[in-house]
């Protein structure tokens, strides 16, 4: 068994048994290598793989914040896997768009506005109103807004999948947005639609908001994929 598989099996078994929880520190490198019967070099490589997957976070130094800590960032691993699939042309951006549309609208329909972190969501919208915000900054906040809304469905896997989808196509989305003839006008429309979606969710419920959300997502996709006249 590879060192990565050995460490993964060890962590998984202890999470299931309750011996470890998210936020706990792993044993020292020396102690863990001895317990698992692997070399310290192999252990380091395995820990780096798990850190890239969002399962661990490592910090050097001393004190309570140092060492290797168990974390929960499933969208990181899923996003990485999707990015590789996109790069190898096994998955097309349109496939990601279709899955995102299905997931996000389903999440909205099952959302409970009472569970929404309203202060956080409105804070994101306020940040998006900054006049000097870059395209990259705007789209990062846009992704945060949509993922924050999805959390009202109280399904952490849904939110993780949506976060992974947005992470996988972030560079592609920025590139398409840069090609738009009037980005400021697009940004104004998107901000207005965000406010309308949030208001619909709060006042009319998930079904009404899902209809606005679908038009919002499809409208932006169609705008960014519209053929441009050749210069």
From TrEMBL:
* Transcription regulation found in the keyword field: yes
Keywords per UniProt: DNA-binding, Transcription, Transcription regulation
Q: Where is the HTH gntR-type domain?
A: 1-73
Query: Which superkingdom is the protein from?
Result: Bacteria
InterPro entries under this entry? Answer: GntR_C (IPR011711), TF_FadR/GntR_C (IPR008920), Tscrpt_reg_HTH_GntR (IPR000524), WH-like_DNA-bd_sf (IPR036388), WH_DNA-bd_sf (IPR036390)
Q: Which GO molecular function annotations are given, in alphabetical order?
A: DNA binding; DNA-binding transcription factor activity
The protein's matches in Pfam families, at most eight in alphabetical order, are given as: FCD, GntR
* Name of the molecule in the record: DNA-binding transcriptional regulator, FadR family
